[in-house]
Amino acid sequence: MSDFIFNRQPVQYGSLSNIISSIYSVAPPKIFEYHGKWGSLAVSQNVYTGFDPYETKHHILVIIGGPVLSFCDNSSLTSSDHNAGTKAIYERWISSNQIKWDMDLLGPFTALFIDKTNGELTVVTDIMSFIPVFASSFDEKLIISTHIDMAAKAAEKEADWDIISVADFILSGVVTYPYTCYSNFRQIAPAAVHKWQSCRCEAKSQSYWIPTEKKGYSTIAEAGAAVQTSLKEYVGKVTKNMKKVGLFISGGEDSRVVLGILPKDISKDGFIFLEGMNREGKISRKAAKIYGAKLNMYARESTHYLDILPECSDIIGSGSQYGHIHAYLFHKLCGLNSYSAVFGGFLSDTFLKGHKIAKIGACYRFPFLPEIKQRKDHYCDPVSNNFLYDDILEKISARRRHHYDYIKQLRPNSADEWVGLWPMSMQGDIPHINGHRHLFRSYEPFTSPAIVKIAACVPQSWKLNRRLFRIAAKPFLKPSKWLVHTDGRLPYFQWYFNLPLQFIRKVCNKFRKVFHPYTIPQYAWYDEEKLLASKKAKELESQYNMQLEYLSRILVKNKNDKLINLLTNPVQKRNLLQVAYILYKNQTCERTILEKV
């Protein structure tokens, strides 16, 4: 549940704690407060064992997230010492000042370091900004937080919404970096050490890694071996002192890889959330049995992803899609927060399978065909529709072009891929990490810096058609080589072996859809169109009707039209409902916004 708010101007004791507590509907976590001439700081307790704040006579160190430490044995993950991990980082940082952030700390993290003697503040972002950090830029004030709504509230700037960013989020599910939903706040750069002197509100930033386009491996086999080594090293360091772990198991291949890497002598409890036992569940059960894990299937309400809208919107904040916090409610129901580690296979698609590489349209319509990269990148095409104000769309397009031009300088031949990765807030489903870290000790092996670096230095052609992933995953997939994926293929084998299998599955699905349709989805995901057409969705529209009208007045050309009725994409409708909820929660904010329009 850990977040922090830093204010350079000292404030009354308890005020920052109240802001942090406001994002929790029930039972807010323990909150630490620190005050001095340097300013005020509030930090909610970290769910990861061993990473509570650490204070000395001269310094304060805060670690957000649960990084795996490569320079020690990670006994802090199961220790009764609540800040053993933080102390280990502090001692390495202070003693040698040679800490290597891209090698010593693996996985998502943010480090905040205060020198109480001279007021200097240092914030370190992880290699991809899996955990984004936001800073103010107004009135010579300095407010920094890992939660954008908290930051705006601490600055008393909740009403200073950036309407361009709000529209950007509704249309695309992300806010183009470095902008936020608030005019006076920006996201700070990933993979960098940011330092603020006591008398300055502008930071001096130094990157410790940049994803430049360069070749790192001579063969795909060499790169695949490096992926194998990195995954085993990450999982081994986490589980070294553990006897039991949890993990998410699906009908796909990524969870099988994690199952294959986990030590055989460790107890493994698997979890899957479905609307009812289906194809995905049956395959998951077989996978769990093959790898010696116990599978627990929990039924999910058909309206689950609308039921959790208020609480998850509060946890993740404005400008991030709440719906990717899939385990919310289940984290308590399943006892996920009782495990020393809960593993997932998230971002394997992104880093190793070219998920963000623009491909020709046929690859999406017919997934059994070989993947071919699209020649023209359409990211910078003008954002257009016929109902939003033209100047809003033009400004969104300009921001995207500016970000694309920056990425193009770093990666001339793969900007189409990395424009949606650098930083990770440009990928809509990243709340899966940033949300779940609030709920339980989540570990995602594919976030290891070594995996990120491999992804950055291999040709895109190696990622297409799962070539790199398959080579790396082959030993871990071997026990389940004859167990089909939910989409009908056998992950152990090459794409051309699976082409007829996937084609047959697609044809069968077409016939079944006509003659004998399923009553529930056969995958782990829900039916977005059905959800947004549900009675629950209509109830939310009614509840937030005033806020939806306000947003229509701000964004839509024709004042007689309602934005919720103009949007045909169900994901965009869900984004709009999330924005409406945030306005609903702060009705003073919405009135102030309208006054400025």
Oligomer: single chain
The low-confidence parts are: none
Shape: globular
Euclidean distance between termini CA atoms:
36 Å
Q: What strand order characterises the main sheet?
A: 2-3-1-11-10-12
User: How helical, in percent, are the residues?
Assistant: 25-40%
Mean pLDDT: 92
Over all CA atoms, what is the radius of gyration?
A: 24 Å
SSE class: alpha+beta
Counting DSSP H or I runs of 4 or more residues, the number of helices is: 26
Strand content: 5-15%
Which sheet architecture does the biggest sheet show?
Answer: 6 strands, antiparallel
Number of strands: 19
Q: How are the SSEs placed, and which strands pair?
A:
Elements: E1 4-7, H1 15-21, E2 31-36, E3 39-44, E4 54-55, E5 59-64, E6 68-69, H2 84-96, H3 101-104, E7 105-106, E8 110-115, E9 121-125, E10 134-136, E11 143-145, H4 148-154, H5 163-172, E12 185-187, E13 192-196, E14 204-207, H6 220-239, E15 244-248, H7 254-261, E16 267-274, H8 279-290, E17 294-299, H9 304-307, H10 309-316, H11 330-333, E18 342-343, H12 348-352, H13 361-365, H14 390-410, H15 415-418, H16 431-436, E19 442-443, H17 449-456, H18 460-463, H19 467-477, H20 495-515, H21 528-532, H22 535-543, H23 545-555, H24 563-566, H25 570-585, H26 587-596
Parallel strand pairs: 15-16, 15-18, 16-17, 18-19
Antiparallel strand pairs: 1-3, 1-11, 2-3, 4-5, 5-8, 6-7, 8-9, 9-13, 10-11, 10-12, 13-14
